[in-house]
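Reader question, answered in our methods column.
A reader sent in the components of a multi-part assembly and asked whether the whole thing could be modeled at once rather than chain by chain. We filled in our standard form and ran it. Here is what they sent:
COMPLEX SIZE: two components
ENTRIES:
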Amino acid sequence: MQWETVIGLEVHAQLATKSKIFSGASTAYGAAPNTQACNVDLAFPGVLPVLNREAVNCALKFGVAVGAEIGKRSVFARKNYFYPDLPKGYQISQFELPIVGKGELTVELESGESKVIGITRAHLEEDAGKSLHEDFHGLSGIDLNRAGTPLLEIVSEPDMRSIKEAVAYARKIHQLVVYLGICDGNMQEGSFRVDANLSIRPYGQEAFGTRTELKNINSFRFLERALNYELERQIDVVEGGGRIVQETRLYDADKDETRSMRSKEEANDYRYFPDPDLLPVEIDESLLEQIRDEMPELPTAKLQRFIQTYALGEKEANALTASRPLADYFEAVVNAGGETKIAANWVTMELGGALNKAGLNLANSPVSPEQMGGLLKRIADKTISGKIAKQVFEAIWNGEGDADTVIKAKGLKQITDTGAMEPIVDEIIANNPKQVEQFRAGKEKLLGFFVGQVMKATRGKANPEQVNELLLKKLKA
Amino acid sequence: MHNKTIAELGAGLRAGEFSSVELTRHFLKRIDSLDEGLNCYITVTPDVALQAAEAADQRISAGDAGPLTGIPIAQKDIFCTQGVKTSCGSRMLDSFISPYDATVVERLNAAGVVMLGKANMDEFAMGSSNETSFYGPVRNPWDRERVPGGSSGGSAALVAARLAVAATGTDTGGSIRQPAALCGITGLKPTYGRVSRYGMIAFASSLDQGGPMTRSAEDAALMLQAMAGFDPRDSTSAEEPLPDFSAGLNDSLQGLKIGLPKEYFDEGLDAGVAASVEAAIEEYRKLGAEVVEISLPNTHLAVPTYYVVAPAECSSNLSRFDGVRYGYRCEDPKDLEDLYKRSRGEGFGEEVKRRIMIGTYALSAGYYDAYYLKAQKIRHLISDDFKAAFEQVDVVLGPSTPTTAFGLGEKADDPVTMYLNDIYTIAANLAGLPGMSVPVEPVEGMPVGLQLIGNYFDEAKLLNVAHKLQQVTDWHKLAPEGC
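And here is the structure of the entire assembly that came back:
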C-alpha cells in the first residue's frame, strides 16, 4: 500500500517584546530562577493582567505578512488546568476570536516548485514557567521567569503532504517572524518551538487518518527526525493490522523516538471562557494602516528584487536573503562601492566563513559593511588582486584599519606599471634558460611557472593579467 | 467621640480638638472591649494604626490634611495590605502576608486614613451571612443571635457598632448593600469599573466592585472620593472623569423621578420591610420627587443567572490557590495530585467548594452553551431592563433585602434560601450599575435598608438622593444598644 502523509504544524513563536504580555517584568533569557517574576507573574491574590500593546502589534505584523483576515475585535480566554509551573491555574490564551484569522504562506520547495500552505489562525498567549526536576532531592523546583512571556501560536492547515514540505514550511515561518523582527528565532533558547500533527491515509482517500501530535521539537533537524520516526511508526502500526490512537507524543531527541504522553481520553477539559479581567482588544483600521506602512520588505519580494536589481543568480540571491541582517549587510556593502557579484561572493563566502570560524554572527562582525565595500572597490579598480584582497581582509578583521590604510601601510598596491615590471620579467627569463627552452619547444604549460616566479618576486603585487601579457610577449619574441 | 461621622471627626481633628492618636486609641480600646462578642475583626493592627495616626497628626499640624486624614477605618480582609495578613476569610490564606497594597488601600493610605485592622467576611466573599468565614461568624450588633449579612458582614457590623468610623467593603451580588441594610448603615456599590479591583482578591471578576460602608451618605461620598478613579493596573477600570461626590449632596430633589420596580414589591417582601420603604418613599414625595411604578421584567432571572456567572468565574479565579507558592499546604503530600487535592480540600470551606464545583460544571465541555453562554445573554436582557427604566426615571428605588436580619444558623444548611436573600441586589451587579443601601425605619428593633440604583457612573446622584433623606430623617443615626 502507498501511504500519503498529511501534516499540520503549530508553531510557538516567542515575541520579541521587552516585557511580558500581561506584566511589566522583563523577558530577558537566562536570569537566575524567579528573579524575573513579579507579583502578577507569581499570581499573588488580587493581581490583574494588563495587556502589552507591543505583543498585539507583533501579532498584527504577522497577520498582515500572511495576508490574514484580521477582525475588529479579538478576545482573550482562560485555558484552565492545574500545573505547578502555571501559577494562576489557567493560561491566558485565545479561543474564539483570535487576533489573526485565515491567511496563507507560499513555501519554495527543493524541487524549485512552490506551494501555498494555509494558515488557520494565529493567537496570542502567555508562556508557562519551567519545572526543574533535578537537584531538588525528590522535589521539583519551579522557575517562573518564563511565565507570562508572550507567544504567538501559529496554526497551519493540514496542507503539507511530505516531511520535506513540513520542514520547508517551518523554516519559512521562522524566516518570516525573524524578518518581521517579532521573534529572535533562537531555537536553542526555546524562542521558536514546533508541534506537529501527522496522519497517514492511502493515496486517493479523501478522509484524513487519525492523527498524533508531536510535541517538544526545538530544531528543524529534530522536526525532520521526529516526523520520520512517527511516519514509520504509523505505517508499521497500520500495516501490522493496528489502529492509530489519537494522542500526544513527546519527541525524545536523545533516543530519536516519539512516545505517548497522553491520549485523547485523558485529555483535559480546558473549560475555555473569555477572561473577565481583560477587555476585548479593539483593532482599528488606522493601526492596521500604520502596520502595513511600516511593514519591512518580505523575503520573497526581497529575493525577486535582488535577482533583478543586482543581477544575481537565484542561488546567490537566496543565500543573501535568507536573513534580513545578511541582506541588509549585503546592500550596505554595495552602497559602499562593492560590485554586486563580487560583493555577493565576499559576503557569503569570505565573511560568512570567517564569522563561522570565529563563532560570531553578523551583528558583531569585526568588518563593517563600509569597510567591506571599501575593500571591494580596490579589487574593482585593480588596486589589488583578489588574492591580495584576502590578506587585506584579514588585516581589517584584526582591526588594522580600512582597506586603503592597510594597502598603504603594507605596500600591497598592485604593480600595474609595465615599465616597473619589465626588469623583473627579464631577470626571471635570464635566470631560467632551461625552462625558456622547453617553453619555446612547445611546453606552454610552463607559463604558470613564470607567472609564479614573477608573483613571488613581487610578493603578489603584480597585476596577473599584465604579467601574463608581458611574459608571453617576451617568451614568444 | 465614636458617634461622630467622618465629616465631624475631620473637622475636630483639623480644629485641634483632639489628635488622630487619641482618636485611634479610643477606637482600639473599643475594639478591645467590644469586639470579642461581635467578631468583626480578623486582624487588629494597633502598631500600623498608631504609626499612621502619628503621621496623620503631623500632616494635620502642617496644614496638609484632607477630609480623611487621621480617620480610623477598617479594611475588609479581601483587600491586600502590605505586611499585614490578608486572609480573605479563608484557612487557605491564614498564613498569607501580602507583599503589596491593593490600589484602594494605597489610595486611602495616601489620603491619610488610619487602618485599625482587617474586617471579617464570608470566605472569599461567598456568603450572605458571614457564617462561611474561617474565623467564625460575625454577630449582628443589633441582636447578637442574628447574622450581620455578608459577605462584608464584619465591615457592616463594626461600622454599626462604632468600632471604626467607616470601612471598605466589596459587592459581587449585594455584599455591601445587604449587610449595610441588615446592620443599619449606609453602603455604596459603585458602577463596575469605578473603583480599581487591583489587589482586591477576586471572587467573580466581572461582578466584583469595592465601595465604602459608612454611617452617612456624606461620609460615603468622602470615602468614595479617595477610593475611586482609573487605575492602569486594572484593565476593567473605567477612564471616566471623577466628579466631586460631595458637591451635589444638597441638590434639590424637586422633580426627581423615582421608579419603583413592581417586581421588588411582590409577595416575597416582608410586610414590615415594605412599610418602612413606603415611609421613606413618602419622605421623598415631601421632598418634591415624583414616584412612578416601573417594571424590570427579567428580575426573576437575576439569581439563577448570577449563580452561573459568579461560580464559573470563581472556579477559575480560585485555581491559583494550589498550595504551591503561598497559602495553605497540606501536610506531607505524597505527590502532586495529593498536594492539590488535600491543600484545596482542606484549605477551602464548604461554600467555596460548592461554588467551585458549580462553576466547573457550568464551564465544562458540553454544558458551556447551556449555562455560561446563556447566562451571559440573560445578563444583557437584565441590563436592557435597566436601560429602559432609566429612560423614564432618574433612580430606581426598592428594598435592599426581603427581610430584616435572620438568625444565626437559620439558613446555613439551605443554600438556595440563603441565595434568595440577595434577590434585590444581584441585578445591579449583573448590569454593572451603582447601588446603595441606606437605613430606613427599623422593624421590631432591627434595621431595614432602602436600596437606590442609579445609572452608570451616576454615584453622585445616588449620594444626593440618600443624603437628602438623611437630612430629614434620623434613621441613619440610630445606634445598637451598648455601642
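What stands out: The interface with chain B takes residues 39, 42-51, 78, 80, 82, 84, 87-90, 142, 269, 271-273, 276-279 of chain A (CB under 8 Å). The radius of gyration of chain A is 30 Å.
Send us your own complexes using the same form.
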